[in-house]
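Ticket #4471: structure export looks truncated?
Reporter: QA, pipeline team
Priority: medium

Steps to reproduce: submit the single chain below to the structure queue and open the exported record.
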Amino acid sequence: MKKHIAFIFSALFLFAQSANAEVDAAGAENFVKNTTQEGIVEIINSNASQAERDARFEKLFNSALDVKFIGQFVLGRNWRTASAEQREKFIDVYRKLNVKTWSKRFDEFKGKEFIFKGTSPSSSDNQIFVNSVVPMENAQPASVVWRVKEKDGKFKIVDIIIENVSLAITARNEYSAFIKKSPDGLNGLIADLEKKIAQE
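Actual output as written to the record:
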């Protein structure tokens, strides 16, 4: 377990590009609090139709997450070799897939509450970790850590780490392996993600 945790945090260092700059810790924590409040309480717990909740969640997702930043990270070196058209298509399908995935995933937190535990410094420029836990029935509270980037006084989520598993790093590993095996490379990955979106 200790080796697994050490690997996760060493991999997270891949986000680092320069020395860490001062980040408004209180502002970052309040941003995540407001995001979870809107996503869980005001959307997931509402009596609105599923279609309306999906639309509201998509709006929240697009405003709260820096999808292009995350997309570049999860593609890694494949982003550098991709054409402008491939980059645009990938970000589009990656956004759509994650909206659907997270709309359903947040349903798991229906009726539950995020308890915030302050922040932790990040080695990455203009970034900080916001720590939270979610009490679970008949189990230990689930750890949910939000990686937040600040730019020009505005905050964006760039990764979510659930029980020491980084969603961005998991996607990066999966996508890199897929592209390596696929005869169509990145185009094959884009087609596969489009298929998953249709199946959701």
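Status: closed, not a bug. The export was complete when the record was re-opened. Leaving a note from the reviewer for reference: Strands lie at 115-121, 127-136, 139-151, 154-162, 165-166.
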